[in-house]
Amino acid sequence: MSVRTLLVGCGRLGGAILSGWKLTGSVPMAELGILTPSRKAVADAAAADGADLSPRDISSVETVVLAVKPAKWRAVSEDLASQVPVGATLISVMAAVRADAMAEVWGHRPIARVMPTTAVSQARGVAATWGSTSQARDAIERLFGPLAKLVPVEREAEIDVATAMSGSGAAFAYAFVRALARAGIARGLTDQQALDLALATVAGAVGKLEMQPDPDGLVAEVASPGGTTEAGLRVLEPSLTQLLDRTVAASLERVEDLSLGG
Questions:
Q1: Using one digit for the tens of pLDDT, what is the confidence trace for 44-68?
Q2: pLDDT band per the 50, 70, 90 thresholds, residue 39
Q3: Virtual CA dihedral for 153, 159, 160, 163, nearest 10 degrees?
Q4: Are 144 and 116 in contact (CB under 8 A)?
Q5: Which end of the chain is more exposed for a tag (fewer CB within 10 A), N or C?
Q6: Distance between CA 102 and CA 175 in Å, rounded?
Q7: Cα(126)–Cα(120) distance, integer angstroms
Q8: Nearby residues of 231 by Cβ (< 8 Å), 6 or more positions away
Q9: 50's torsion region: left (phi>0), alpha (psi -120 to 50) or beta?
Q10: Distance CA 110, CA 138 (A)
Q11: Which residues, in sequence order, are bridge partners of residue 66?
């Protein structure tokens, strides 16, 4: 079969996307080409299922997923753009690289930007999406719909906000669990006890929030008036709100700084 989907880059995020495609079967491996400068186990596994790690003929490619480091996208794109059909769609999962910059190299092809979390590897991700045309939006739905909850945005600039909030947010969540565990360790729990409690508590809370997406209502449900939870929330909430606002602002500022060099 000819290559219909071309994955360019198979690092942390590209590899997660590839794992999600294999898991869900949403992209047939026999129709997938993968370009990566170094051997990756996930790419080798895809090759065993029929993916082409050295595609020489990409004249039938319908969609290119660009998952390289933002600093390298121009060099990679200049080699590829002339080989990919003019009607193909370009989907970027890179932070900070704007569509107008990509169009300088890729021309008037439909361009989409997707900012997924690495949980796409288990088909449990979330992804902010923006597409320049209906063809681009259809390509997003086909390739990423099976892997993630898609959150479309109307303006491309909102992808940068999503990058700062959701693209980076998994690390913020891990840091919260780590800090909660450390608070238990400081008061006598073992490292393992504290981590088990913190992780299971947060995972359970997220699971309930998925079924009942009402954060205010769930906070009120747990925090009985005059109880221990309410006492803790009086300390946590004002600080947490301000801290996360500054955290997202700092990430967004960095995205904007990086985009200036795109």
A1: 999 999 999 999 999 999 999 999 9
A2: confident
A3: 120
A4: yes
A5: N
A6: 34
A7: 7
A8: none
A9: left
A10: 11
A11: 8, 92
Shortest CA distance to 120 belongs to which of 97, 155, 93, 139? 93
Planar angle of CA 142, 144, 149, nearest 5 degrees: 120
Closest C-alpha among 26, 34, 30 to residue 49:
30
Q: Which of 13, 20, 2 is nearest to 36 (CA)?
A: 13
Distance, CA of 6 to CA of 8 (rounded, Å):
6
For residue 149, CA distances in Å to 129, 143, 144, 156 come to: 10, 12, 8, 18
CA 29, 132, 103, 60 dihedral sign is: positive
**pLDDT more than 70, % of the chain:** 98
Q: What is the 3-state secondary structure (H, E, C) of the chain?
A: CCCCEEEECCCHHHHHHHHHHHHHCCCCHHHEEEECCCCCHHHHHHHHCCCECCCCCCCCCCEEEECCCHHHHHHHHHHHCCCCCCCCEEEECCCCCCHHHHHHHHCCCCEEEEEECHHHHHCCEEEEEEECCHHHHHHHHHHHCCCEEEEECCCCHHHHHHHHHHHCHHHHHHHHHHHHHHHHHCCCCCHHHHHHHHHHHHHHHHHHHHHCCCHHHHHHHHCCCCCHHHHHHHHHHHHHHHHHHHHHHHHHHHHHHHHCCC
In the predicted model, is pLDDT for residue 171 greater than 80?
yes
Minimal CA–CA distance to 62: which of 158, 11, 135, 130? 135
Other beta carbons less than 10 A from residue 195's beta carbon: 18
Question: What is the distance between the alpha carbons of residues 65 and 91, in angstroms, rounded to a whole number?
Answer: 5
Tally Cβ neighbours within 10 Å of residue 233: 15
Can you give the pLDDT at residue 24?
A: 98
Write down the pTM of the prediction. Answer: 0.86
